[in-house]
Design goal:
Three copies of one chain form a homotrimer. Chain A is an alpha+beta fold. Chain A is built from three helices and eight strands; from the N terminus they run E-E-H-E-E-H-H-E-E-E-E. In chain A, 56% of the residues are buried.
Chain lengths: 128, 128, 128
């Protein structure tokens, strides 16, 4: 079964915790691997600490330092940095599932990574 | 079923769009997740915008800026940068498939990322 | 079946080759894709060259240069860099399996990427 969740960002660069939506999707799955796929080219997805929001802030600041919004880019739409950041984070994550639970570590959350918001986005989900 | 596609690069650093080859592989699959795996250590794979080639150019230029070909590397083969770029992009991508179609976003293409070409390379493909 | 391996790091930043443990896990699998997942937020996983240890050294040095341990981070635990490095490498790898063998390239090894050691860590494994 393929499912889809909607993600609404409110800033240009923003990490949005989507763990609970993915948890809801896997609750009937006895054992498997769930793939969460971002069908966008200026957003990515990653797994990292969800407890302290400073971690997300540090990550966004470092990505902006390495790949600044303003720079010598050829792409004329003004969001070349967002494309590059998206590939650095990646377009999908895979999480192992057991007895309806994501086998995440204690501190792990799943983050949608917006790099060209605010926008309405989606994430596709499927278990194998 | 495991399949394999051949990729021939013509430059040292080059993104090569392999979307149509992966599309051909999945056309009999009703529903699943396809894994595309690069069995090389100086090449990677990523999903990003395929419409404007400037995006690929910007990505390659930024990767070269962050990880220059010439630098203080210990690896004696002269391609340490290619190894590092490969890990930043990653060795595989996963795409959800439905009714024989890759569930990619409108602007997404699958790119083989050559960082030590020109070479003849391969990508392994399997659906789960 | 889900399995788990234990990884013990001895340095703050360290790549640890876990290929043989993953090989052992897949030896009864006729065909599939194995997912190796790191349930930590200051460690990642990547596939790269295992023959020359200089490649690992170059990769760690470059990651440290791009994301230094000491920097202007908000996260108060002193390991913000480790979180960022973890997301740059990623939390999982997928490898295609055939006749009990990982379909890795000649030079590829699977590396657990420690960025906040020394610690005792784990990697979860499942084949689809």
């Amino acid at each position: 079964m393929i499912s889809q969740i909607k993600v609404t960002s409110s800033k240009r660069n923003q990490f949005i915790d989507i763990t609970s939506e993915i948890e809801a999707f896997v609750k009937e799955i006895k054992e498997g691997v769930v793939t969460c796929f971002v069908p966008h080219t200026t957003a990515g997805i990653t797994i990292n600490e969800g407890a302290d929001p400073s971690v997300q802030a540090d990550m966004l600041r470092k990505l902006e330092e390495l790949v600044p919004h303003s720079g010598e880019y050829k792409h004329a739409e003004g969001n070349a940095d967002a494309h590059i950041k998206a590939s650095l984070m990646g377009s999908s994550v895979q999480i192992i599932v057991k007895n309806g639970k994501l086998q995440l570590g204690t501190w792990q959350s799943i983050f949608f990574c917006e790099f060209d918001g605010p926008r309405v986005r989606k994430v596709l989900i499927r278990a194998s």
